[in-house]
Amino acid sequence: MSLTEEILSQLPGDVLGGLRRSDRILTSIREGQPPVPTAVKENQQQLGAVDWDVLICGGTLGILIGCALAVQGFRVALLERGILRGRDQEWNISRQELEAFLKLSLLTNAELEQAIATEYNPARVGFDNGIEIWVENVLNIGVDPVYLLETLKQRFLAVGGKLFENTPFGEAVIHPDGVIVNNQYKARLLIDAMGHFSPITQQARQGRKPDAVCLVVGSCAQGFPENHTGDLILSLTPIQKQCQYFWEAFPARDGRTTYMFTYMDADPRHIGLEALFEDYLRLMPKYQNVELSQLKFQRALFGFFPSYRQSPLHTPWSRILPIGDSSGNQSPLSFGGFGAMVRHLERLTEGIDEALQTDQLSANALALLQPYQPSLSVTWLFQKAMSVGINQKIAPEQINELLSAVFRQMQESGEMVLKPFLQDVVQFPALTQTLLKTNFTHPGIVVKIIPHVGLLALLDWLVHYGNLAVYSALFWLSKSFEPWEKYLPNTSKYYWHRWVDAWKYGSGGDYENRERGI
Ligand SMILES: Cc1cc2nc3c(=O)[nH]c(=O)nc-3n(C[C@H](O)[C@H](O)[C@H](O)COP(=O)(O)OP(=O)(O)OC[C@H]3O[C@@H](n4cnc5c(N)ncnc54)[C@H](O)[C@@H]3O)c2cc1C
User: Fold this and answer.
1) Which atom of ligand 1 approaches the CA of 301 most closely?
2) Tens of pLDDT along 34-90?
3) Which atom of ligand 1 is nearest to the CA of 59?
4) What is the C-alpha separation between 294 and 392, in angstroms, rounded?
5) Nearest by Cα to 80 from 148, 167, 187
6) pTM metric for this prediction
């Protein structure tokens, strides 16, 4: 019996079966053979009167935007295939990001405090035989998804939102004046919040293989030595099985959460979730200085995150907007999709509000709500530098050495360089400073990256890096246009605001505002 079989069989429910099911889905995606559903059709006839301004399919992150739009006064309905309920495992996020819930009147101060299940400090960043850094107030808040989603659901219903549980999305037909779902629910706009494996996303991506995958396994358990600190990214080992393993750990309400994750391309010969779980359990004693027999496992956690260079996803259809994991609006380095959604919640709420007010619901107009962001695209190279091709020969400590060198420079440059990066925000000045310094102090390490990531990836990255500079400049220039904005007609205002948002978020310019509480 493997360690995985032994430990997972102690947990209630068929956890091992769930892990193996996820592995089968991962295999079909890696082999490029996932079924491509026909979830969306088009019809040129008029639909006539609609019942809802917005119909949201998928309730996990869907309730966030659903609640925000219902509070703005829109007629919103939400379809959830099961029961709308948050998962038991906390979502980690940084405190200032949670301000969005207050600004949008989704939660009261008291409710927000109650949603915070855990708070810890400090957190560590460290690499095998390399640097160790401690930071404060980064991803150190654990939000209780059960309480958060239940509270948002009650607020949603109180302001007139309509929730249809146990109602799976089947198909959508787009008409020139509206969209009808399951031949029953008629709305002006359909928001797809059905996650990575949404049928709408699958159809839009046409079964294309992801460009990268992040595999995560972990657990929440009791019995660890007392520890009120966390790890944001930590490695203990050199490259093994063509993977660099990273660890993450947080104090949780009912124990300690530990994750092991790794980045890779979508080659089917790479390790799967069950084998990764076995390595996680094998390495855990070394990581947490504990014997497995001392631990009482509360739950097992696992998942994989496909990411596509062509992200965020732009669908070919009018009247459909993906949000949350289905949209691909997060960096390929992150599995913090809740955090990414909260970071964009105000922007999305304002943008959808304006799109509905000005009737800008064409595919092109909606694509501007999930715009190209060089701040996301530049992270592709980092993802590549942290993963190993199945036949690639790389010195076992190369990734650790590179990360140690880069993080040392970031630490020396100060918190304003280090902290945004750890919160998934890349900014031109910080990135340039770090790269120049690393190049200067560790030229040998930098030279090794070129054959590792490949020349094409490097050239592609240079384009995004250049765009990051351009977006930073455009965002800065756009501020001087603010007094003139009011003279624009409403439709032009919609486009102008979307471009400013793209420059702002695409240059990481949203970070300063959040830090200053603006
Ligand atoms: C192990 C692990 C740890 C994580 N830790 C963090 C963290 O600490 N911080 C963080 O920010 N993020 C974290 N995440 C990521 C976060 O959980 C996801 O980004 C988030 O759940 C995405 O929400 P979503 O609504 O977009 O998609 P999903 O979570 O996939 O939810 C999709 C929703 O749509 C519904 N649905 C699906 N199909 C249909 C259908 N046909 N009809 C109707 N409804 C449908 C589902 O029932 C579900 O409610 C973690 C994820 C994992 C796996």
Assistant:
1) 1
2) 789 999 999 999 999 999 999 999 999 999 999 999 999 999 999 999 999 999 999
3) 49
4) 38
5) 167
6) 0.96
